[in-house]
Amino acid sequence: MTRLVSVISSLLIFSLSVGANQVGADVLSDADKAEIIESVLELELLSEGSVAEFAHLRRISSQNIEFVEPWRIAKHGFTLVPARELGGWQDPIEYQLFTSISVRDGVARVTLLRVKERWPCFGPHTLRERKYTCESRRTAGRWVAQLIGRPVQMISFPPRTNEVNTTPR
After folding, report:
1. Mean per-residue pLDDT over the chain, rounded
2. Minimal CA–CA distance to 137: which of 106, 110, 112, 111?
3. Is the N or C terminus of the chain more exposed, i.e. has fewer CB atoms within 10 Å?
4. Is 44 a domain residue?
5. Are strands 93-104 and 126-139 parallel, antiparallel or unpaired?
6. What is the pLDDT of residues 104-150, one digit of tens each?
7. Does residue 111 form part of some domain?
8. 135: β partners
């Protein structure tokens, strides 16, 4: 019985110490996340001609970054568009979507998609995405981003139907 109590108390102390370390380390405030997003937008302005298909892409989806004030996006020449307004366009719509922001050892890793999609009157919805990953580090009191890796192109096709042609020839 004494051994069981000792094991349980050891596990409890260990779990509390691990939990305390995780809470205090690498937690970003919304203000830090907003600054990181701004650093990525600054990088976008510097390297926007690198992918001709997505050059001069100025719409940013509000999805996943609802905490960022529109003026912070606008001051870099971009427009924050509510995610609900990005669907159902017949003309192709192009925008950027921040998918994740995580931090480890003081380095923020940001993943974003450059998206081009269309909902034609007749025909399937088409979607083309290019995934980018950036790292942002706090340097001289501000976050500075850099692109890591090469952009990955992802193309989505409409789902196939399992229709069988039963018409006689």
Report:
1. 76
2. 106
3. C
4. yes
5. unpaired
6. 999 999 999 988 888 777 778 788 888 889 999 999 989 999 988 66
7. yes
8. 109, 146
The pTM for the full model equals 0.69
Alpha-carbon gap, residue 65 to 67, rounded angstroms: 5
- How many domains would you assign to the chain? 1
Closest CA to 116 of 99, 96, 136, 134: 96
Number of CB atoms found within 10 A of residue 113's CB: 17
**3-class secondary structure, 14:** helix
75 in any annotated domain: yes
CA 130 vs CA 57, 66, 117: distances in Å: 12, 22, 12
Dihedrals phi, psi of 157, to nearest 5 degrees: -105, 155
Q: Alpha-carbon distance 121 to 118, whole Å?
A: 10
Angstrom distances, CA of residue 86 to CA of 33, 80, 125, 134? 23, 11, 13, 24
Q: Across 11-15, 34-38, 162-166, which has the greatest mean pLDDT?
A: 34-38
Residue 21 maps to a domain: no
| Domain interval for residue 104 | 27-156
Q: Which two tokens stand for residue 123?
A: 């025909």
